[in-house]
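Async update (no meeting this week)

Hi team, since we skipped the sync, here's where things stand on the single-chain job. The sequence we agreed to prioritize is pasted below, unchanged from the tracker. I ran it this morning and attached the output directly underneath so nobody has to dig for it. Comments welcome in thread, and please keep replies under the output.
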Amino acid sequence: MASVRVRFAPSPTGVLHIGSVRTALFNWLFARHNGGKFLLRIEDTDKLRSTDENTKSIFEILRWLNIDWDEEPVIQSHNIERHKEIAHNLVENGLAYYCYCKPEELAAKKEEALKAGKSYKYDGKCRDLTKPVPGINPVIRLKAENDGKTKINDMVQGEVTVDNAQLDDLVLLRSDGTPTYMLSVVVDDHDMGVTHVIRGDDHLTNTFRQIQIYKACGWDIPQFGHIPLIYGPDGAKLSKRHGASSAEDYRKLGYLPEAISNYLLRLGWSHGDDEIISRAQAIEWFSFDNVGKSPSRFDMNKLQNLNAHYLKERSDESLMQCILPLYKPGLDDIQKARVMKGIKSLKTRAKTIIDLANDAKIYVNAPETYTEDCSKYATSSHLEWIREVRKTIDGLDALREQEICEKVKNCAEQHKVKLVEVAQAMRAALCGKLISPSVFEIVEILGKQETLKRIDAFIAHFDER
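Output:
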């Protein structure tokens, strides 16, 4: 394959949608698989809605996902004069023309067509004008082909054809002199040397109109690939009403970038029955032969399961850096040390970074409250056992999980009760809840002083009742 150059061209008019992230990922993988270049273009020509904050967020999210770009990002608004130049060149070459139709006139014709149950298409009234109309700032329209057909061999959709009679003379330059999206995209893609345009299939109809611009300019036409959209569980296009819809939403919910990338890769692309796919494997295997034509449905349960897998794979040190910012105020050195020791067990249970941070709170502070289930393990008998456990722990020189377990087991046998009953009572006292890693591991991590302090608080709390 000739040198591949692809681009991702988000608009900074809002946050980066998760579907756009998948588009970026597919472009990036295609470039890396083929030894090509992945380019980034910020389409900021909508000055009313584009913000620097959104642009920075796009950069940040792509870096977070380890999607890097090979050249300096192109800022579309910096190329406006170039876009204008192309529009005027087309007029000079007889391939575009000045249109003086007033907006209200066009709106009336459109309304009339809709009332008649017809699709609206500009009628070319100004196409053959030879003189300007005084007092009106014209738009520039492309002289689109009226005869024949336009065909594309789409990398995803296959062969798609439209009759040119359906294509209108699209506006290239507005009456205020600003270029339209259609023109800017084509000029920038050409100037950036883009060989393959990979984007959502909601752009498919635009492609036929943009090909007309390529032909008028005499430029090589890139190959196109239109990816089906991502739908929510209800079959509608994924949006905020389904909950999280932006990449930033998922980051805030505690999902890891490798889980997001793996999940998005499998939304519409497959490699046999493989579900867990590393970045290296994705680069090696990726091609559009395995991209489906049908929309994919976002499944939060599958994403959670993938995230749980990658949590287990992450180093304890890396996860520590992920959860530390979630504690307000921050942790002192003792708390950090406890959490660090506890992560190894905690990460096998968590599904998100948020889960992990919440579960690790057992090592941060003593429980301020106890769940309702804890009272089941605070009867007079349970409190008697807990007092015996306290004496046992207080008598140990060093707290080691296995030794603590053996000592508490002996204590349970003396009272002729099951170890699980005593362990649950200990868990209630130390954690304020009945779900946690091994309670003997917790004792070892908390240390003698903190363990005894929490047991005393538990006894005092339920003794008062």
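Quick observations from my side:
DSSP finds 17 helices and twelve strands in the chain.
The mean pLDDT is 94.
Reply here if anything looks off.
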